[in-house]
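for ur thesis appendix - Protein kinase C, brain isozyme. copy paste whatever u need, i formatted it the way the template wanted (i think)
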Amino acid sequence: MISTIRVKSDSSKELQIDANASSYISSLGPGQILPKGINSSLRCVGELNLAVSLEKAVLELKVLGARNLIPDDSEAIPDTYVKCYLKDGDRLRHKKKTRVVKYCLEPQYNQVLKYSVIISTI
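the 3d part is after this line
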């Protein structure tokens, strides 16, 4: 499955998933949660392209790339990366990060992040 997730930023420059569409919120399955502090009034700062697969207790998240990134108020082009968290309720199970792509507003990562999971908990 390949999906594009819109990314938002608040004044502290933290990126969050865009929840402007109630269809996104209503499509969350068991165990899926909105990021902490999600706010639909935040401005969109780009899109993230992901592919997700689950096979034999391994969750693979392929981070393909980002596009339409909008830099913050400084005029410098940012160094970008994607940080992914696998949580069980409020408990953080795994945290992984892609490599850094320097000075790019349309970075291509093409990187697979693998998580060992117990199928019954997904």
